[in-house]
Specification:
With 183 residues, the protein is α+β, with helices and mostly antiparallel strands. The protein folds into two domains: 61 residues; 112 residues, no CATH class. The protein is built from four helices and nine strands; from the N terminus they run H-H-E-E-E-E-E-H-E-E-E-E-H. The strands form two sheets. Strands 3-2-6-7-9 form a five-stranded antiparallel beta sheet, with no helix packed on it. Strand 4 and strand 5 form a beta hairpin.
Length: 183
C-alpha cells in the first residue's frame, strides 16, 4: 500500500468512527434535542454510505489489478567455461540497442543497469509489458555493448529471476576487446 493510499484509508476510517459516534450520541440523547434532528434521521444513511465507500476503497486496494513490474538479473556467461569468471560489469551497454523479444515478432527496448547484487546487471522491462505478454511464452534479450559486440539472454519465461548472459560474437573477439581486465 502506498503512502497516499494509507493516508486516505486512515482518513476514511476516522470519518466513519466519528460519524458513527455522533449518530450514536444523538440517538442516545447525549445532545439535547438531537433525537429529532436531521443527524438522528439521516445520520445512519450517511454512516452507511461512508462504510460502503471505505469498503470499496479497501477492496480496490486488495483485489484491484496491481501494476505489474518485473526485472531480471543477468550474470556472466556459463559457456564457454573460460568466460565463467568474466567480469561482465566492465561491459558498457548501448541502451538504444537493448531489446526484449516476445510473442510473435514483438520487441521493446529494455534498460540494462548495474546490479547491486554480485557481478551482473539488472534488466528493467518497460512499464506495461506485463499486460502484453503471455506468462507461458518465452522471452529473449538482444543486447549490444559499446565495443559492437552482440550478446543475448537465451529464451526464458517471464518472472524468472536470474539468467546467464550468452555470447553471440566469437569468443576471440570478446577476449580481444576485454583482454585480461575481464578475466
Amino acid at each position: 500500500m502506498t503512502r497516499p493510499q494509507y493516508i486516505i484509508l486512515l482518513t476514511l476510517s476516522a470519518l466513519v468512527v466519528v460519524t458513527v459516534l455522533a449518530i450514536l450520541g444523538a440517538n442516545l440523547g447525549f445532545f439535547p434535542g438531537a433525537q429529532q434532528s436531521q443527524l438522528a434521521k439521516w445520520g445512519p444513511a450517511g454512516a452507511l454510505a461512508e462504510i460502503i465507500a471505505l469498503f470499496s476503497f479497501v477492496a480496490k486496494i486488495i483485489f484491484g489489478k496491481q501494476p505489474g513490474r518485473f526485472s531480471l538479473l543477468i550474470g556472466p556467461p556459463e559457456t564457454p567455461s573460460n568466460l565463467r569468471d568474466f567480469d561482465i560489469t566492465l561491459i558498457e551497454w548501448v541502451q538504444e540497442n537493448c531489446f526484449v523479444l516476445y510473442g510473435q515478432n514483438s520487441r521493446e527496448k529494455v534498460r540494462v543497469v548495474p546490479s547491486r547484487i554480485g557481478r551482473g546487471f539488472r534488466v528493467q522491462f518497460p512499464a506495461g509489458l506485463v499486460e502484453k505478454i503471455n506468462p507461458e511464452e518465452a522471452m529473449e534479450l538482444q543486447l549490444k555493448d559499446r565495443k559492437g559486440n552482440q550478446w543475448n539472454v537465451k529464451p526464458f519465461l517471464p518472472f524468472e529471476n536470474v539468467m546467464p548472459l550468452s555470447v553471440v560474437e566469437p569468443i576471440e573477439k570478446i577476449v580481444r576487446d576485454y583482454g585480461d581486465e575481464g578475466a
